[in-house]
Each structure stands twice: as C-alpha cells, then as structure tokens.
Amino acid sequence: MKRSTTKNKLPPFLNILISAVFWTALWAFLAYLVDQELLLPSPAATLKRLIVLAGTSEFRSAAGMTLLRVLVGYLSGILAGTLLAVLTAASRPLNTLFSPLGTIIRATPVASFIILALVWIKASNVPSFISFLMVTPIVWSSLRTAILNTDPALLEAASAYRLGRLRTLRMVYLPAVLPQYAAAMITSLGLAWKSGVAAEVLCHPRLGIGTMLHESQIYLETADLFAWTATVILLSVAMEKCFGLLLKKLTEGRNPS
Amino acid sequence: MSGIRLRDLTKSYGSKLVLNHITADLPSGILCLSGSSGCGKTTLARILAGLEKPDCGFFEGITGPVAFLFQEPRLFPAFSALENVSCVGRVRSSGASQPRLRFGRSGRRLSSGGGGPGSIAPSGSGSAPEREAEGEARTLLRRLLLTDEDMDKRPAALSGGMNQRVAIARLLLFASACGGNTVLLDEPFKGLDEISRQAAAELVLERLVGKNLLVITHDRTDASLLGAATLSFEDLARGIFL
Fold this sequence. Notes:
The complex is a heterodimer.
Chain A: H1 12-34, H2 43-54, H3 57-90, H4 92-107, H5 110-120, H6 126-148, H7 152-160, H8 164-203, H9 209-218, H10 222-251
Helix pairs in contact in A: 2-10, 3-4, 3-6, 3-8, 3-9, 4-6, 5-6, 5-8, 6-8, 7-8, 8-9, 8-10, 9-10
Chain B: E1 5-13, E2 16-25, E3 30-34, H1 41-48, E4 56-60, E5 67-69, H2 81-86, E6 91-92, E7 100-103, E8 109-112, E9 119-120, H3 128-143, H4 148-151, H5 160-178, E10 182-186, H6 194-207, E11 212-216, H7 220-226, E12 229-232, H8 233-237
Parallel strand pairs in B: 3-11, 3-12, 5-10, 10-11
Antiparallel strand pairs in B: 1-2, 1-4, 4-7, 6-9, 7-8
C-alpha cells in the first residue's frame, strides 16, 4: 500500500493556539527581563486587570459606546463608499469631480482630520466621523475598480440577450465585484477600529475605550493600558469574524471561481 | 419572408477598412457566410446584431431583437449551465418591427423602424414563466446531450464543447422567446465532436424554422450539416446577391 509522504496538517485552531502561546511566552519573558510593571506589565498582570475591569459597569459602557461609534462610522462608510463607487464608475464627469476628494482623504494624516473634526462637530461624534472617513475611500476605490474590471464580453452577452438592468446586476456585476468588495469591507474594518479609538484618545468623549486609554497613560497605569488595548483587539477581531461569516454567507455560491 | 438588405454598409477600425460600402440582398432562410480570418464576417454580424454601429449605411429586413451566438460561449461563470440558459427564456419583445436602421457618417442611428430592444420581463410576476423557461432549457440541454448532472454544473466545471452546447441552447431559447426573425451564428459548432455537431445542427434546424439564419463559419461542412447555401464574404462584398 502506498503511503502518503506529506505530513499531517494541524487543524487551524491549533496553529493559532501555538502562535498565541509563542508570542505570549515571549511577552512574559521580556516582562520578566524588564521587571518593571510601569514599562512592561506581564501577561498575567494584564489579564488580571482585564478581568477586574471587565467586572465594572464603566468598562461595559465604554466598550459599548466605542463599539457603537465604530459600527456607525463603519457602516455609513461602506454605504458612502458603495454609492460613490457606483456613481464614479458610471459617470466619468462624476469621477473627475470626486476623485480629488478620495486622494485628499487618503493622503491627509488621521490626526489632522481628528483635530479639524473637533472644531466642526461634537466631540462624541468625532470617532464615528473619522471611522467613516477612513472606510469610505477603501470601499470606494476597491468597488469602483471591480466594477470597471467586470468582463466586457459578459456585459455584451447580457446586453445581446436582453437581460435587463436587474438581471445583469445579479448575473454579471455582483459575482464579478463581490470578492473584492468583501475583501475591502474586511480590510477597512480594522482601520475603522484603529482610527475610531485614536479619535477617542484625542477627543475624550465621556465614555469610550480611547478615553480610558488616555486616562491610563496619564495615571501611568500601564497594565490598564494593555488591558484596554487587548479589549480593542478582541472586539475588532470578533467583529471581523462576524462580518467575515456574514459576507461568506452572502457571497456563497456567487463566486465565479 | 424577405431576407436582409444591406445598403452601403461601411465600417473601419482606425485606418483599417473592414466593410467597404457593402450593398447586398441576402436571401431569406439559411445562409452560410465564409471567408478568410479578419475579412469582416464577424464585424458584419455584430453590426446586424446591433452590437456595433457602422460608420455609414443601413440595413433592412430585421424584425425584433436579433439572436446572436458569439464565437466564444460567454456563459455567466457564477451560474449553472441550466441557469445560463433559462435566464434568457422570459424575453419580452417590444413587439414592433425593426425594418430599417439608418446610420449617419458617424455611425449614429438616424432613424429606426420602431423595433426597440426587447427586455426581460420583470421578475416577481409569479414563478410559472420561470418554471416554463427552466423546463424548456432542460429540454434543449438534453437534446444537446448534456446530462441533468452537467446542467447543475458551472461553466468552469464543464468542457469547452459542453460550454459551446450550453451557449447554443441559450441562443435557441432566446431566439424563440424574443420573437425576432433573425438569428446570427458565429462559428456555432466550433469545438464540438461529430455526434454533438450533428445533434446541435438538427436542433438548430428544428427550432429556428421560419427565421432568417446567417451562419458565419470557416468550416464548409457546417453548411452541409445545415443544408445551407454558402456565400463567400468576398462575393458578398462584390454585391453578388443584389
């Protein structure tokens, strides 16, 4: 009997676990070497603080508010990006009109936008606005490129067979753009979190993870700083997984490959 | 039934003149048009199908939407063979005839006989027409020697010959649904084995009775399969059918 020469592959969760154990061990080792919690708290100290913080109502309110702000900015960014992509792909004059806007948003430092937004709008709304600004150009440019790269031969076939606009959208455009659109949505989610929390750090809304991060830094509570950062990472990853699953469900069976 | 009348049709791509003031009367029924590669056969078919505009000239005798079989299958990759065929089964023709399309020097349409494009009937009007289209699509695909299992596969999972047969089935369903009088086939049996060619030719002859059929081909055996007269593109350019 022939034997397979390839090694057994580990299940994905085991790969993740091994990787997590390695990096946590390295962190613990470095914390042991530094031996100053103010500079680098150990994983155990961070976890302890996280557990303590998670038990407080302030933690839940701050995390909830940040989640809400990021979600509002993210979803409105997707909506605006989608609308702009469709409009600028359909009309060259509109693309000429709007493209400098995209270039400016992409090139301007996030901090400049945050400070400017603080002048214009209420501090508690700035994080949503900043997340919106960061998500919009990514979704816009990815979707527009995908629309423009749709196979012209298939579009011609749809036209020759009189499929009509709705059926052409369903049978030609959606399968062509969905993979790139979904990838843009996932990529921009991480950015929405980063920029949203950065905006909270600078704007200090009454409740928010960014505000807590800022306070931890002021009072030199490095373990708290790590615990709040871990919270952001956990929430971001959880949201990414949820959206990833949702997009997978939506695109299932409609991927041309 | 009258055939297609070409009047002064001219088309060039840049400096290359592809159709040089072609004036001809094509006979009704089935006609095979042969000619060397790049001589302008496909360009002529694309103009007749309304996919390209001539630089000038016009044509007459086409009623309703034209059913056009592309050289490549051009199937929608995210959908099964069955869906690819049945999706064209509910075309609603505008009903009016399209006897004459006239283009100016710039290729802009100057006048039309009222034969606007047909369109797919809006969905949501009940699933009976959809089921009917699906049933018709299944029948056509079976006649083209595709199994029920093949019908549920996407184009990427089928061979080139199978995809060509799916494309033929789609054309036949569209031709019967759209109500037009003209069908253009560009290299219809390319990549098909003998048995499939025979089955496809029989089905084409059976389903397209009463329509003007213009077959563009390199292969002279296609004409004998369809029992059609063959005209070389060079003769057409000289206006031999005038």
